[in-house]
Specification:
2 copies of one chain form a homodimer. The first copy, chain A, has 377 residues and is α/β, with parallel strands linked by helices. Chain A has 13 helices and 12 strands. The first copy, chain A, is globular and about 60 Å long. The structure holds nicotinamide-adenine-dinucleotide (2 copies) and zinc ion (ZN) (2 copies).
Chain lengths: 377, 377
């Protein structure tokens, strides 16, 4: 955390997955130089760029110009912004655009946007011609530190979030830290929840560093790059150790079981709750529930809540505008969540800050009682 | 070819793919005993069965009864029959049915039907929860000897056949050879084209055996089981050596580049042309084109055509009812086919019966001239 580099060269985090290993470049100005990084790594000269209506007016033009300059022929497709875009309705035109652009073996599909565009585009790249090359240019903090790394792609179903998708690793990730300046403060905070998560999983020192330095991270510059690089490294380490989420990778779901239930309960309506906000509330709930199960000290739950509240994140179910369905309905969403095993509930619980673990047999009725307590009526 | 087993126990072909290896069982009466085979291999007790409107009235009931008897809770979904079912339109309800059935880690999705149901269901299983267990119960000859083995799944796009999908290996394949008795003679012949293909790829003795014994294969009994087992073994060997179709696996496409172009040219209208018929014509064309390129003797092309014609398969483009688009249009379909590499055409050509090979740099203009010759106007 104390090494601070002042050089202009981007930081590189390597995701080690044998012959599917790839680099994450993190630094300022990467969109303008994207084509150089791509052309140096991929032989193909045809690309399809998928982005959304918020990101397109800001960054599509410079990216297309950079590609053109390197002799890369690219088509682009602009989709509506928001979680609802992660659906079959939008997957279909993305697939057709990729096929229509005649993307071949060495060409690539590029996702330019937040996690929604990354997840949707990665899925489309994963199924077009049974797997096309894929480049992530994440433009939200959440996408830079989390969704663009690790190869999980997918869309939502009426039955739940991210229930349909594939594992499809990118060939390259370009995290341009400058573009975060146009991200709304609310979205920046939401992404920050995932940064804090890495501290809470197994990096107590990083969490403590964030408690002191979060304002510098929000302001930009070296502290921001550092926080993103540490986060990417943390995720890359977990992914390399457990690509398919059978063991350790599940730790990345800290706060997500509760978080996903809340997102479902608010119909994925970003006006009420965005993903990172659900994760923030979920992480506080996970620490409180762990305390209730006598696994961790209630002081740790308080410390987590205090920090997340300080940066401006919601930390309680009551912080969500509008009415939430009763606790029992939330439980339905939790039981349909991917982390179900033969009827028992799998949760990420903790023994304290930076001491998370996978609990395989959490009694559903304990969770229900806890939720009823936290959200009466 | 000479070993003939008279025992009632099904033949087993093992597909060797490390920790994703699986068995193909081939024999009479397997649908009635399906649940026993499944319960012996999978821990899950929840299944979703996907089938089509032709197969459902014949075999769904006995399968569901067998599952119920073993304490397996199953839901079923019946789709329209035919190639057009391999589309996003039908993929969506299959995914939702799987998720709605709450298929968990050890449960499975079952495809009961021909290659259409197998490809579509396998794709849905491959993306539901980023990969659910999958059992193939192929009911057409083509599905038993080809599509149910090897893990290629997918749907069609307006841009071409099978352009969207994933590799997703089944956990078990149950080929009940009795059910082929209700298959229409035309569909049986179409599947037989793929059986003959294995001989033409690299088993000249098997092809010679088929020339003598094809009537017994059509009649049923041991010769049929034997031919199916040899075909499955041939495909299993190729798949084990090259799961992702980078090298040797491409040989399985013998006859398919031309065949797919003809399927596209007839708008996948099964009344005019079914897959195996396209492959039959395609294999004859591949041998004729190889002869034209001075790679093989024209006598081999004649021998292939004579045999396929004897069993009642179409062997020439003119055998297809209705008008075909001009040769140039057929070329468009060939160039969009998956086997395109950087603009050059990849074809499976041959040096004679059972001596196929992958040709990487077939000049497109030679193919066009050949097609114009074979299909003037
Ligand atoms: N695949 C994974 O491993 C993984 C991990 C975590 C989250 N996710 C998914 O990520 C999604 C959330 O990602 P998100 O928070 O990035 O959402 P998002 O993609 O909706 O982006 C948030 C908003 O910010 C806008 N935006 C993005 N970059 C911008 C920029 N530089 N300037 C201005 N506006 C910008 C977007 O248009 C959108 O309106 C969820 O769907 C979640 O499920 C996936
Ligand atoms: N995945 C692969 O590796 C692979 C390989 C080869 C072909 N395929 C695909 O397979 C498909 C063709 O398969 P198909 O020929 O089985 O087509 P199909 O599934 O359409 O079946 C042919 C017809 O026979 C009916 N039928 C099936 N079994 C029957 C039975 N026992 N009794 C009576 N009727 C029955 C079906 O309802 C259908 O009308 C194509 O889409 C092709 O692309 C895939
Ligand atoms: Zn998250
Ligand atoms: Zn075929």
């Amino acid at each position: 955390m104390t090494r601070a580099s002042l050089s202009a060269a981007p930081k590189t985090v390597r995701v080690d997955l044998g012959d599917r290993s790839y680099d994450i470049l993190i630094g300022p100005g990467l969109i303008a130089t994207a084509a150089g990084e791509i052309a140096g790594r991929l032989k193909g000269r045809r690309m399809a760029v998928i982005t959304d209506e918020h990101v397109a007016p800001l960054y599509l033009e410079p990216l297309m110009a950079s590609l053109k300059e390197k002799g890369i022929e690219a088509v682009s497709l602009v989709l509506p912004a928001g979680e609802k875009t992660k659906s079959f309705e939008h997957l279909i035109p993305v697939c057709e655009a990729i096929l229509g652009a005649r993307i071949e073996r060495n060409d690539a599909v590029i996702a330019l946007g937040g996690g929604v565009i990354g997840d949707l585009t990665g899925f489309a790249a994963g199924i077009a011609r049974r797997g096309s090359r894929f480049i992530q240019i994440p433009t939200s903090l959440l996408a830079q530190v989390d969704s663009s790394v690790g190869g999980k792609t997918g869309i939502n179903s009426p039955h739940g979030k991210n229930l349909i998708g594939v594992f499809h690793q990118p060939d390259l990730v370009l995290a341009d830290t400058d573009v975060l300046d146009t991200l709304s403060p609310r979205e920046f905070r939401a992404g920050y929840a995932e940064v804090a998560k890495y501290g809470l999983i197994d990096k107590p020192d990083f969490f403590a560093w964030l408690e002191k330095n979060w304002q510098a991270v929000f302001a930009g510059g070296e502290a921001r790059i550092e926080a993103i690089a540490i986060s990417c490294q943390a995720k890359a380490d977990v992914v390399a150790a457990d690509e398919r989420e059978n063991g350790r990778r599940a730790l990345l779901n800290l706060g997500h079981t509760f978080g996903h239930a809340l997102e479902a309960a608010t119909q994925y309506d970003g006006r009420r709750l965005v993903h990172g906000e659900g994760v923030a509330i979920g992480m506080v709930l996970a620490h409180q529930f762990s305390a209730r199960m006598n696994l961790a000290s209630p002081d740790d739950a308080t410390r987590v809540e205090t920090h997340l509240k300080a940066v401006g994140l919601p930390t309680r179910m009551n912080d969500i505008p509008g009415t939430l369905p009763p606790a029992e309905k939330l439980m339905d969403a939790i039981a349909q969540d991917k982390k179900v095993k033969g009827g028992k509930l799998t949760f990420i619980l903790t023994r304290g800050i930076g001491q998370s673990f996978v609990a395989d047999d959490v009694p559903a009725n304990e969770v229900l009682r806890f939720l009823e307590e936290k959200h009466p009526g």
